[in-house]
Amino acid sequence: MSDLKLLITGSKGRMGQAIIRAAEAQNVTVASTVDVGDALAPALAKADSVIDFSSHLFTDELLSECLNQKKSLVIGTTGHTNEELGRIREAAKTLPIVFASNYSIGVNTLFWLTRKATELLGPDFDLEVVEMHHRMKKDSPSGTARTLVEILADVRGLEYDKDCKHGRFGDVGARTPKEIGVHAIRGGDVVGDHTVIFANVGERVELTHKASSRDTFATGSVRAARWLEGKPAGMYDMQDVLGLKG
Ligand code: NAD
């Protein structure tokens, strides 16, 4: 049994429930849980660290209470505005935070492969990302699709906010070499599919990851919380946790 005590926020949700099971499987104590209507401060006081898979609308309150009580944080929630992302980065100057759009080992390998493929294939290949999720998903595109576009943009010297084209509708004209397309499909109970397409004249490369269980994200997030124990303040991601950097 590890000494780590966790607070799970968004505990009644699909991910919250999977994380409670994953913590038990890794012998980590869930000291408290919070969902809509529960008081955060007393729940946080019982824990060393938080795993948050709730809503981006909860992030500001969570960050400020974690700063008050000096608790580390694993954030899995997606769909943040640029202002909310800025406040997470600011808090990471004081607290150790793991913030990842995806906690699965497979997707983090896809991130690595996407960077390598973009570097190898060069600027002649058109870049598109397609994601599919279950019908209940609220934000779009998925945080994972956003990370994939950010990797593509980073290698090509482009910017997510300026060069990403969200779907196409109407008389949009021919594709420009600079744009990165991203397309969100919603339906059924799909846990999460992501494909990165590199398309040139005469050939095409596609990298695909398909998640069939939320347990892969839940297991990864508990692993991240354990990895974070004793780390100095800073903004970490799952590539740090898995040692895929450098
Ligand atoms: P869900 O809707 O099933 O669960 C969200 C839970 O959070 C609900 O129980 C809801 O009541 C609770 N919640 C909402 N607002 C809250 C608040 N203000 N205070 C406390 N609790 C609040 O959603 P889900 O499928 O479990 O996903 C949750 C989040 O995790 C989403 O942002 C999703 O995109 C993200 N996600 C991330 C990964 C990853 O690997 N990073 C994987 C899957 C899902």
How does this model look, in words?
Helix content is 38%, strand content 25%. The protein is α/β, with parallel strands linked by helices and 246 residues long. It folds into two domains: 5-99 and 214-241, NAD(P)-binding Rossmann-like Domain (Rossmann fold, 3-Layer(aba) Sandwich), CATH 3.40.50; 105-211, Dihydrodipicolinate Reductase, domain 2, CATH 3.30.360.10. It has a six-stranded parallel beta sheet, sandwiched between helices. A hairpin with a 2-residue loop joins β9 and β10. α3 runs parallel beside α4. The protein is elongated and about 60 Å long. It binds nicotinamide-adenine-dinucleotide (NAD). The site of nicotinamide-adenine-dinucleotide has 26 residues, from α1.
Q: What's the topology here?
A:
Layout: E1 5-9, H1 14-25, E2 29-34, H2 40-45, E3 49-52, H3 59-69, E4 72-75, H4 82-91, E5 96-99, H5 105-121, E6 126-133, H6 143-156, H7 160-163, E7 164-166, E8 180-186, E9 192-200, E10 203-211, H8 215-228, E11 234-236, H9 238-242
Parallel strand pairs: 1-2, 1-3, 3-4, 4-5, 5-11, 6-8, 7-8
Antiparallel strand pairs: 6-9, 9-10
This protein binds nicotinamide-adenine-dinucleotide.
Structural features:
246 residues, alpha/beta, Rossmann fold, Dihydrodipicolinate Reductase, domain 2, five-stranded mixed sheet, 9 helices, 38% helix, 25% strand, binds nicotinamide-adenine-dinucleotide
Shape: elongated
Biggest sheet descriptor:
6 strands, parallel
- CATH architecture name of the largest domain: 3-Layer(aba) Sandwich
In total, the number of domains comes to 2
The total count of helices amounts to 9
What's the N-to-C terminus distance?
A: 32 Å
Counting DSSP E segments of at least 2 residues, the number of strands comes to: 11
- Identify every distinct bound molecule in the structure, by name, code or SMILES: nicotinamide-adenine-dinucleotide
CATH class of the largest domain: Alpha Beta
SSE pattern, N- to C-terminal: EHEHEHEHEHEHHEEEEHEH
Strand order of the largest sheet: 2-1-3-4-5-11
Instruction: Return residue spans where pLDDT drops below 50 for at least 5 consecutive residues.
Output: none
Q: What name is given to the CATH topology of the largest domain? A: Rossmann fold
Q: What is the assigned CATH homologous superfamily of the largest domain?
A: NAD(P)-binding Rossmann-like Domain
Q: In percent terms, what proportion of residues is strand?
A: 25-35%
